[in-house]
Amino acid sequence: MTLSTTLNALADPTRRKIIQLLKKKDLPAGEIAKNFTMTLPSLSHHLNILKMANLVSSRRAGQNIIYSLNLSVVDEIIGELYGIIGKGVKKNK
Question: What is the spatial distance between Cα 25 and Cα 38, in angstroms, rounded to a whole number?
Fold first, then answer.
């Protein structure tokens, strides 16, 4: 995963909305789809881009595919962005 891949994935408002939904709880694709007016193949495309950026992961549960936010990658990206802007992450002593 590269920072460029992640930022490209986050550049789209639809994908940011998907991340906001998954921040609350893991969801099957059908539940995610209820929040959008797009075809399932279009939603699948957005989910695949998020998966390729390692921002979300998926697992099969019977007939459903459940999507989860990958918090460790989100934390890593935030750390990289802080490093770029020169703020650094303050550590507790």
Answer: 21
Residue 91, pLDDT score: 55
The domain locations on the chain are 3-85
Which pair of tokens denotes residue 2? 């590269």
What pLDDT, on a 0 to 100 scale, did the predictor assign at position 88?
47
Exposed e or buried b per residue across 74-93, where buried means at least 16 C-beta atoms within 10 angstroms of its C-beta: beebeeeeeeeeeeeeeeee
> Which residues on neighbouring strands pair with residue 64, listed in sequence order?
61
Other C-beta atoms within 10 Å of 49: how many? Answer: 20
Query: For the domain 3-85, what is the CATH code?
Result: 1.10.10.10
More confident residue, 5 or 59: 59
Average pLDDT over residues 2-23: 92
Q: Phi and psi of 36, rounded to 5°?
A: -135, 160
The set of residues, in sequence order, having a beta carbon less than 8 Å from that of 89 and lying 6+ positions away, is 79, 82
